[in-house]
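Quick start: what a row looks like.
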Amino acid sequence: MENETKEILIELKMMLDKLNYPVEKPLEFSFIESITKENHSEKLQPVISSVCNELYQLCNNQPDYLNFLKTMDGFECNGLILFSLSIPEPLVKNLFVMNDFYRNNDDFINPDLMKNLVIGNDSISLFTYNSISNLFEIRDNVATENIFGSFDNFNDFLREILGTVK
């Protein structure tokens, strides 16, 4: 699957370049090491600690997602966004900031998003990773219990969402 990931990422980079979108730098090796370790600091807020644990599971259960991060730290193209892990907001949407918002705000905490790691979005959908079922899901942005598609691997998921912007 690693070769398939490389092919998809080459296509993605060419598409971003053609449409004049920036290609984000890959994650630093030290950052990759920190997210692939199971034990996270006890000094973290409970919500962020939970996000870190789910990210750990994602990177270990779905190595193609980790290969994606080793190539680019998220992207934005015509409203399609896969969140960055290391770039602070407001430059680009950050996975930690967005998941903290979905799980820890004063207005509304969505029970569907509490159980899933939100990894991106577009104008009508949220992209989540369910660490219990090990599935990538495309969910309705408003009625988040509605799932438009489930994928057991990152490559199929990425191909599906990229098909909306080509």
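That is the whole record. The mean pLDDT is 91. Strands lie at 75-77, 80-82, 117-121, 125-130, 135-140, 147-151.
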